[in-house]
Design brief:
Length: 44
């Protein structure tokens, strides 16, 4: 969250957030229906 979002939350709910790390990195693969692929490999 951005600093302004954290400040807005804390101002609205009157308590501080507790940060919990849930991921370091993420990967997403999206395929369009009109451009399908049969196989997805690491090099692709």
């Amino acid at each position: 969250m951005k600093g302004t979002e954290i400040e807005a939350f804390e101002s609205r709910y009157d308590y501080k957030l507790t940060a919990i790390l849930v991921a370091i990195d993420a990967l997403s693969a999206t395929v369009r229906q009109d451009n399908p692929i049969a196989v997805l490999t690491i090099p692709r």
